[in-house]
Amino acid sequence: MKIQEAWKWLEEDTTPVSSGYLTRRLLPEVKYDVYLAIEKPTDTRLLMIRVKHSSIEMEMAFPKSNSFEVRRVALPNDDPIYVTLQLVLTKPSYRDIFTTLIQDIVDHLAPLAEERNAVAEFIIRLRRWQAFLEKHNPEGLSPAAQQGLYGELKFLQQIVIPQLGSRRGVQCWTGPRGTQQDFQFEHCAVEVKTTVAKQHQKLAIASERQLDDTATGTLILLHLSLDARQGRGESLPDIVTNLRSLVENDPLAREELETRLFEVGYLDIHTPRYEQIGYTEREVNYFKVEGNFPRIIETDLRNGVGDVRYTISVAECKRFSLPESEVIFLILVNYE
Predict the structure, then answer these.
(1) Do 155 and 86 fall into the same domain?
(2) pLDDT tens across 208-243, in order?
(3) Residue 141, C-beta contacts closer than 8 angstroms, at least 6 positions apart
(4) CA atoms within 13 A on the CB side of 103
(5) How far apart are alpha carbons 328 and 172 in whole angstroms?
(6) Domain range for residue 189?
(7) What is the pLDDT of residues 82-115, one digit of tens each?
(8) Does residue 160 share a domain with residue 122?
(9) Co-location of 162 and 107 in the same domain
(10) Backbone phi, psi, residue 59, to 5°
(11) Residues 63 and 130 in one domain
C-alpha cells in the first residue's frame, strides 16, 4: 500500500475520536502487527509495530533525529507479553520526508515474516534515515547540487554504463560514498564539474586532494558546460528516470543506483521542485590532470594548512585536453 494514500484515508475518517489513535493495518500477511496511525487530539502521525517483548533487547537503543523519535509503549488492554514501537513525527514540517521514510520501512518489512528480523530491519532503516537527515536539507538539493548531480548522472548514462554495463557502471560511481573523485575505475578516476556560466568559466575544487592523482592512476577532470532554463531541456528527474530504465533489468544494479541516489540526497518527493529547470549540453571537455596542471595538492601545502578550497580557470585547463575516445580506453583497461 502507498503510505500517502493511507494517510489520506485516515485523515478523511469521520469516526469521532477525542483521544487515542485512528489506525490502519498494514502488511496483514506478516506475523507481527504493523499500523499506520494518527494520534488524537494532536493529529500526530505514527507508524506502530506491535511485537513480543522477547523480540526486542531490553537495552536496545533506537535512532532518533530532530524530526522523528521512537517510543516503546504498552497499548491499553494489551497483553503484557507485547510491546509496541511507535515511530513518531516530531516536526510537522517534515511530513513529506516522514511519509517517504515510512514507505521505505514498510517496503523492507513486507518480505520479513519473523518479528526479530523485522525489528532489526526497522533499526537499520532508521539509522540510514538518521544519517540522511543529519547530512541533507529536507527541502531538497540546492541549485548547485542539482547541477552537479545532473553532470555526474550524464556521464554515468552516456559513457560509463554503455561501456561497462549497468552493474559495474553504477558501482564505479563512488562520489556518493564520499570518495575524493566522483568515479573510480581500475586504472583511472574521473572528477565531474558542471557549470552553467556562459563566459570565463571557473571550476570550484573542494579540497587539496580532489585533483591529487596520487594512487588514482590517470586522473581525469570532466567539465560539462550546461545551459539551464526553466521549462526547457532535460531536467534532473528526467535523467533519473532514464537511468532507472537503463538498469531496470538488473535488480542489483537497480538497488545500487537507488542507494547512491539516496546517499547523494535525491528523493522523488522533490521532483516538482527539480523538474522546473532543464539542462542543455553546451560544451564537454576532458582534461588530464598531471604535471603543472593548475591545481593545489597536499604536497604544496605548508604544515598546518588544510581544507583548501579554490577555483581554476577552464581556459587554463584547455592545454591538457584529451579526446573522449582516450577516456573510454582508460575506463575499459582490465575490464574487458
Answers:
(1) no
(2) 899 998 888 999 999 999 999 998 899 999 999 999
(3) 149, 265, 266, 270, 274
(4) 16
(5) 14
(6) 143-332
(7) 999 999 999 988 999 999 999 999 999 999 999 9
(8) no
(9) no
(10) -95, 15
(11) yes
pLDDT tens digits, residue range 44-90?
Answer: 999 999 999 999 887 788 888 989 999 999 988 888 999 999 999 99
DSSP tag of 127: H
Overall domain count for the chain? 2
Domain boundary among 90, 108, 135: 135
Final residue in a domain of this structure, among 135, 156, 182:
135
The verdict on 297 and 156 lying in the same domain is yes
Residues 120 and 180 in one domain: no
Whether the predicted pLDDT of 254 surpasses 70: yes
Residue 162 and residue 47 share a domain: no
Q: 3-state DSSP call for residue 244?
A: helix
- Residue labelled with grid coordinates 494518527: 38
Give me the residue label for grid cell 541549485: 143
Tell me the helices (H) and strands (E) count for the chain, helix number first.
11, 12
- Are the beta carbons of 61 and 70 closer than 8 angstroms? no
Computed over every residue of the chain, the mean pLDDT equals: 92
Based on the domain organization, do 171 and 131 belong to the same domain? no
Q: What is the DSSP letter of 60?
A: P
pLDDT at 29 over 70: yes
CB half-sphere exposure, 3, CA atoms < 13 A: 22
User: What would the pLDDT profile of 134-191 be if each residue is shown by its tens digit?
Assistant: 999 888 999 999 999 999 999 999 999 999 999 999 999 999 998 999 999 999 999 9
Cis? peptide before 41, omega within 30° of 0: yes
